[in-house]
Amino acid sequence: MPYNNNPTRKEQSYLEDALQMENLCLAKCSVYADQCQDQALKSLLFEVAKTKRHHANRLKQLLGQQSNGQASQQYH
Question: How many domains in the chain?
Answer without folding.
Answer: 1
